[in-house]
Amino acid sequence: xxxxxxxxxxxxxxxxDRDKLLGQVLPAAGVELILNVGTNMKSCRDSINLAKKYDYxxxxxGIHPHNVKDMDKDGxxxxxxxxxxxxxxxxxxxxLDYHYDFSPRxxxxxxxxxxxxxxxxxxxxxxxxxxxxxDDVLSILKNSGAGEKVGGVLHCFSGDAALAQKYFNLGWxxxxxxxxxxxxxxxxxxxxxxxxxxxxxxxxxxxxxSPEPCRGGRNDSSYLxxxxxxxxxxxGISHDxxxxxxxxxxxxxxxxxxxxA
Length: 261
Prior knowledge:
Layout: E1 2-7, H1 18-28, E2 31-37, H2 41-53, E3 57-61, H3 75-82, E4 88-97, H4 105-122, E5 126-131, H5 134-144, H6 146-149, E6 152-154, H7 161-169, E7 173-176, H8 186-194, E8 200-202, H9 224-235, H10 239-253
Parallel strand pairs: 1-2, 2-3, 3-4, 4-5, 5-6, 6-7, 7-8
Helix pairs in contact: 2-3, 4-5, 9-10
């Protein structure tokens, strides 16, 4: 059974078949749990609504660095209010993105710090997006205390083993998705090989980053089997054991006690 620790089923590519996919296809494919991750205020609300509709879906709320330029003075309070929903289990997707710089970097850092403080106040784990900004992300995590006090996951990890170790030293997890199956992703497979088994989460980031052999099309949680198969091979364990380990890691991090009936 699989736990997709990072998905975006509220996004437009799922508009035509969302209900069929979530109601029938994914449960039949062995998907036990999904964390639908917020990226802006609407996405957070939509994630909560999906969690209310489907018992195996949970939600996180947070403003992606691309979108923090649009946060107003009441943004943090709006997020705090959303966390009153019982199936909101994390703050995210938050962080820094210095590749696209869709939001000014000073605003990205300010909003990241504010949302980390919210996570600290509420004692909720964090889902971090980082692109070409690891020095600042690590510094902010350490200075805020959130790195060690609430924990979290570096989503869609793309760094090397030395960088991964810095997050492990904070007690953090890394999320690995479809990229690990790509032919040119040897560095990420090296990271997976040195990752403590209790520190790895699997994710799709769907609708993006479909694994081989599905690369190029829309991603969904039924493709987790390809990611788990690759991880299992790297670790030298069975597919079922790798799925069990990653599922239990995510349940523990996000404090989810759900068991499929």
